[in-house]
Amino acid sequence: MSHLNVIVSAIADVAEGIRHFTLVDAAGRELPGFSGGSHVVVSMRAGARTYRNAYSLLSPPSDRSNYQIAVRLQENSRGGSRFMHEQVQVGTALEIAWPVNLFAISRVGRKHILVAGGIGITPFMSQAHDLLRTGANFELHYAFRSPRHAAFVDELRRLLGPRLKCYDQSQGQLLDPAALLSHQPLGTHVYVCGPGGMVDAVLDTAARLGWPDAHVHHEEFLAPPVGEPFAIRLAQSQRVVEVGAEESMLEAMEAAGVDVPYLCRGGACGRCELEVLATDGVLEHHDHYLSEDERRAGNKIMPCVSRAKCTFIELNL
Ligand code: FES
């Protein structure tokens, strides 16, 4: 996969556990253009191991002089967010993949309701710039645990004025998806990014109120969970790749030099889907891409986040 070489030009702490990074092209050129809601995958080399995490771009898409990302330190981080917080300094060189947009604003929506929880605010930063530029009808609803945990509120307030509605949970201000999604004009689209519970609440409410699926958008990059080690047998190349307890199937295959396509690395896009030919155990699906029927069939897996409880799994690769 082609990549860009960038240098970290600034770092700032913007909320408890959230660090903001500004990245510039290593050769001083303009960076590639992108649209609101895009993300980049950052490669982090930690000794013999390479972590790759997806982060939304925060910067105005019209500004190609730099990219900005924000990284929340995950308590149970397997290394990626910890590496960004502890190892990366101003001047650090990083490798990033070209921007990809899996969370684009609908071109046909007449009104757009953006719903963010915590670090889920990040894709809406660039989307807000795009929506303002096109004069779209939109509002941003931003829920956070407390002001200490809320990144970019002042910047968003300046940018959006009354279009921004904040919900400070420490003050008992709770976002009510039913109230938000009821009585919206025909042609409204809703976009949600945040903790799983919030995403589910918005999706469930939209379904219950009869919103068309095509008008409901969400983004949630999941981290691969840890588990027991097992082996992958690659049927076409007759190779065996060992998957450690703390690495994903995708990471293990990459470390072994096996090329597997990906976009989100978080179980959302379906790009890494592989065919399962056999296993002596059970598949543990952690993505939110496969349908229940596909999971039951047991012949597909998303190696970026899913794994298996087994001694071996055989893939058509
Ligand atoms: S890379 Fe997107 S689901 Fe695996």
TrEMBL record:
<dbReference type="InterPro" id="IPR036010">
    <property type="entry name" value="2Fe-2S_ferredoxin-like_sf"/>
</dbReference>
<keyword id="KW-0408">Iron</keyword>
<keyword id="KW-0411">Iron-sulfur</keyword>
<dbReference type="GO" id="GO:0051537">
    <property type="term" value="F:2 iron, 2 sulfur cluster binding"/>
</dbReference>
<dbReference type="InterPro" id="IPR017938">
    <property type="entry name" value="Riboflavin_synthase-like_b-brl"/>
</dbReference>
<dbReference type="InterPro" id="IPR001041">
    <property type="entry name" value="2Fe-2S_ferredoxin-type"/>
</dbReference>
<feature type="domain" description="FAD-binding FR-type">
    <location>
        <begin position="1"/>
        <end position="106"/>
    </location>
</feature>
<dbReference type="Pfam" id="PF00111">
    <property type="entry name" value="Fer2"/>
</dbReference>
<dbReference type="InterPro" id="IPR050415">
    <property type="entry name" value="MRET"/>
</dbReference>
<dbReference type="InterPro" id="IPR017927">
    <property type="entry name" value="FAD-bd_FR_type"/>
</dbReference>
<keyword id="KW-0001">2Fe-2S</keyword>
<protein>
    <submittedName>
        <fullName>Ferredoxin</fullName>
    </submittedName>
</protein>
<dbReference type="InterPro" id="IPR012675">
    <property type="entry name" value="Beta-grasp_dom_sf"/>
</dbReference>
<feature type="domain" description="2Fe-2S ferredoxin-type">
    <location>
        <begin position="230"/>
        <end position="317"/>
    </location>
</feature>
<dbReference type="InterPro" id="IPR039261">
    <property type="entry name" value="FNR_nucleotide-bd"/>
</dbReference>
<keyword id="KW-0560">Oxidoreductase</keyword>
<dbReference type="GO" id="GO:0016491">
    <property type="term" value="F:oxidoreductase activity"/>
</dbReference>
<dbReference type="Pfam" id="PF22290">
    <property type="entry name" value="DmmA-like_N"/>
</dbReference>
<dbReference type="GO" id="GO:0046872">
    <property type="term" value="F:metal ion binding"/>
</dbReference>
<keyword id="KW-0479">Metal-binding</keyword>
<dbReference type="InterPro" id="IPR054582">
    <property type="entry name" value="DmmA-like_N"/>
</dbReference>
<keyword id="KW-0285">Flavoprotein</keyword>
